[in-house]
Amino acid sequence: MFSISGLAVATAALLAAGANAHGVATALIHWPDGTFYPGYDPGYQFVHPPPVVIGWSIPDDLNNSYISPSAYDTPDIVCHLGATPAGLAAPVNAGDVLEIVWNQWPESHHGPVLDYLANCNGPCETTDKTKLKFFKIGEAGLLDPAKNYWADDVLRANNLTWSVRLPADIAPGNYVLRHEIIALHSAGVPNGAQNYPFCFNLVVHGNGTATPAGIPATSLYTANGPGIMFNLYNGSTDYVIPGPPLYSSAMTAAQTKLGFVKATASGVSSYEPSAAGAAARAVPTPSVAPAATGAAATAAPVAAADQPAEPVPTTLLTAVLKAEGKE
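Structure tokens predicted for lytic cellulose monooxygenase (C4-dehydrogenating) (327 residues):
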């Protein structure tokens, strides 16, 4: 069970997060079991030692900053500024829905939401981020040009959360989930786009055999490429989502307000897929069916089995209060 000594730590985290108008992906919720896994929070910069979590550490991100196109060829584009691997991982099944929780996101920062996976080919806790090969498993951009309605609008409407479904056919193993928003409010000029990538470690169980090819994060985008240089204010109705094409077996997750968490957990250590007893640590197998295609904003609600019983906490403080039975 995840715990921090004293709620003052969580409060400090929230205060630090609110120091800048940008946002941070601070947690992950696994469905259908509704387990809340804290990720890295900006407030952990003031905690010694910081909690061990499933989110990659970004202590250099002192003001909720971003990665500029001029840094697309640097390691910072992998999982944010100075990111280092997480010490734990969320145990999941191929085909599961994961809900990423943000602490905030400004209304003016329109842009696409993208999700990638990379197999660590060993423990993710010690992986070399420059050698990770990412394949895209989710994307959404300009959903309604007439209303200038973007993927980030959906995230804000759903309690600052975004859902992604893992491909059902991927082989078991240790993976990094790379979740990202690209803010385009200043992208009409060179080097104006703002990338906000955040990473979480996963231990994926299942019977899949697919090993999708990927590319290094430093090759995902080009500074003047489609979807990076874009004038948000000229009424354009044609937006090309940047990055490589979607993995052929990617599954669209319904973007809905999934509800309350049912439990909290810290995570597990990575494992070798062939190790004896790995299957015993598998999480319960959900019923997996490809979600309806189409714009995320209009996707059908998730199946009843995926529906939790109460609203998702959108801040670390709420999660800690719930975990301690004080809310």
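The CA atoms of residues 205 and 282 lie 6 Å apart.
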